[in-house]
Amino acid sequence: xxxxxxxxxxxxxxxxxxxxxxxxxxxxxxxxxxxxxxxxxxxxxxxxxxxxxxxxxxxxxxxxxxxxxxxxxxxxxxxxxxxxxxxxxxxxxxxxxxxxxxxxxxxxxxxxxxxxxxxxxxxxxxxxxxxxxxxxxxxxxxxxxxxxxxxxxxxxxxxxxxxxxxxxxxxxxxxxxxxxxxxxxxxxxxxxxxxxxxxxxxxxxxxxxxxxxxxxxxxxxxxxxxxxxxxxxxxxxxxxxxxxxxxxxxxxxxxxxxxxxxxxxxxxxxxxxxxxxxxxxxxxxxxxxxxxxxxxxxxxxxxxxxxxxxxxxxxxxxxxxxxxxxxxxxxxxxxxxxxxxxxxxxxxxxxxxxxxxxxxxxxxxxxxxxxxxxxxxxx
Length: 379
Description:
By secondary structure, the protein is α+β, with helices and mostly antiparallel strands. The protein has helices at residues 11-21, 48-54, 92-105, 150-155, 214-222, 273-292, 298-327, 331-340, 346-353, 360-368, 370-378, and strands spanning 2-7, 27-30, 45-47, 61-65, 68-71, 77-80, 87-90, 109-111, 116-121, 126-130, 136-144, 163-174, 180-183, 194-198, 203-210, 231-234, 238-244, 251-252, 255-257.
């Protein structure tokens, strides 16, 4: 009988396990994959604030992101040069392994290559059925940190996440990438954006996010005039589903949901690492108190939901409002915005308000700007 079983050995799961293990609890991480050798489908862009706040593994850093170059559907350029490093690009294998090591060194156990097939919550414990010869594992409580998994959350009566996007990415041998490039346009990435992120060794991560058909759109993007003549060699295209919006409920008796499975993902850029870590810290603190009081019922664990929503939900909601406006923009509208962005103090406002991981204040300021209000009325 463990104190806590964490299902999923990604960043959110491992950080939750670390937070609990260092408080002296007997924690096991159940991870369906073996030793982390295959990188997940992720750009691997993690803000400087996240590294400083959580002491993340610095040996995983491949490159830094400072300048951005936004490209409109017709090829207009809009540079953003904040004059400081905004984020690090990480090797996700080293990054994940570093967080697993942190959990293990704090006393957590790790079961790799062990898929969780079923979770049963009883009045006295949580029982996990695993793929290892049908073994069953028991714990006083469980943390669901298995990535986006609507089938599991519905089964556990946590509800569903109303919407999702698709992400697709490939590693590319690529020339001429002096800044991170962000591409907008309905023919490039409908409802979202595409990117090219330099890894500083001749390689780049090129990908995009859209509501559906991400792999198809990425193939078209790699063959487009935007990248023509710059690609030496393209790797395999990897795909994943990305939740959009929060899970209806992230707690029940003896159970918490953390990270992507809970929808703790930025609704602007779809990045999930930092918000997942913030929620993981809240989950570990809530469970630590509940375990000490031997009170693992839903009323006690509801404190976790109140805590993470207070920290993240204002950002998620403002991002959703921004997305609704963005979805209404045609390519002509986007090109017009590029032409007008340097006027009326828009770029000055962006330089003053923009933060890599927190977009709510900038969105609120932009929505109150006279130019943006006027533009919105045209839609």
